[in-house]
Amino acid sequence: MNPIYAAMGTTIFEAMSARARASGAVNLGQGFPDGTGPEAVLHTAAEALTQRSNQYPPMIGIPELREAVADHYARHQGLNLTAEEVVVTSGATEALAAALLALITPGDEVLCFQPLYDAYVPLIERAGGVPRFVRLEPPEWRITAEALEAAVTERTRLVLFNNPLNPAATMASAGELALLADFCVSHDLIAVCDEVWEHVTFDGARHLPLIGFPGMRERTVKIGSAGKIFALTGWKVGWMCAAPQLLRGLAKAHQFLTFTTPPNLQWAVAHGLNTQDDWVQRASAGFQRSRDRLKNGLETLGLVTLPSAATYFLSIDLTASGIDEGDVDFCNRLLDEAGVAAIPVSAFYAQDAVTNVVRLCFAKADETLDAALERMARLRAPA
Fold first, then answer.
1. For the domain bounded by 39-276, which CATH number is listed?
2. Segments making up each domain of the chain, as ranges
3. pLDDT grade, residue 131 (50/70/90)?
């Protein structure tokens, strides 16, 4: 077996969810929301399944969805993409895999920002690349010029950038994005931008795509997710956007991964992107209310939380909360003693981990959040 996978355990998300299912715990670990998504999108998918084609759609995606993605980004982010610059994928993780397989030549180095999505490192290594890490630290988790320059070498070819950032729940500022754009241009790097959380933002903040910054239009791969936009995480419909000379290579990698994506879901997502802007806005406002409900409840229990500007997640700062315990031990105790599943943020580091931050998912019904808070109130102090 390939040693990259042979030495790998089950992801922390699946492990904690499995323990939660087995024990009847309230699961605030894995990031999936309660709710069913926009009704109009579901109906379109169901109708297309029975009334339209279920044979292979075009490998790069149906024209309606590629056009809808381009139009969506023109409306919301001021981008001048065309349908010819969009490839539909079976989820954003497949888009990441295709991009990395297409762009990495064995030995190339890829800059990653820690904490990071756990798929990044194995995907880079399986493509023959070498991950190099820029370590971000709480509470701001900010990118600095010094950290970038310390990580880059003459073998660096790519930057893999998640914005908004899971698990930190931060959004890069315009200044940070300008800094990163200048860095990519000056070092002749391609940026692979995982922007799946671009519509799950709070407090009036607006997502700014790196591809829109000076010098980045021809050197950026922008990745999006219908699952995140419409809170339909099981659908696994995503896309890659890039200039034609980049996209041709990405499509070649995609054709030998999933090749294509269920056509009924593609028609439904196209319909959603064209008609459901109001639903997306209401969903974001709902997630913000849930964030505030959980935050207020945690603070009532004496737990200090870190800012959450985006995503489905809110983190507890154990040190600031007066808890002299590592994040893994705290999460195990929280599950065993209180029946609440959470995720230790150290799981999102490949090296030099932050060990005093715990992530909770707030994209849940009010009664689920309240039940978790009631259980957490019974948690004993560490021995």
1. 3.40.640.10
2. 3-37+278-376, 39-276
3. very high
Q: Is the pTM of this model over 0.90?
A: yes
How sure is the predictor about 119, in pLDDT bands with cuts at 50, 70 and 90? very high
Per-residue pLDDT, 167 = 94
CATH ID of 3-37+278-376, from 3.40.190.10, 3.90.1150.10, 2.130.10.10, 3.75.10.10: 3.90.1150.10
Residue pLDDT, tens place only, 178-233: 999 999 999 999 999 999 999 999 999 999 999 999 999 999 999 999 999 999 99
Helices (H), the chain: 3-6, 12-23, 39-51, 63-77, 92-103, 120-126, 145-151, 174-187, 226-229, 244-254, 263-275, 277-300, 327-333, 366-376
pLDDT digits (tens, 9 = 90+) for 229-281: 999 999 999 999 999 999 999 999 999 999 999 999 999 999 999 999 999 99
255 contacts 111 by C-beta, under 8 angstroms: no
Q: In what order do the strands lie in the sheet with 86-89?
A: 86-89, 238-241, 220-225, 190-194, 156-162, 109-114, 130-135
Contacts of 361 (CB under 8 A, 6+ apart): 27, 28, 29, 30, 31, 32, 312, 313
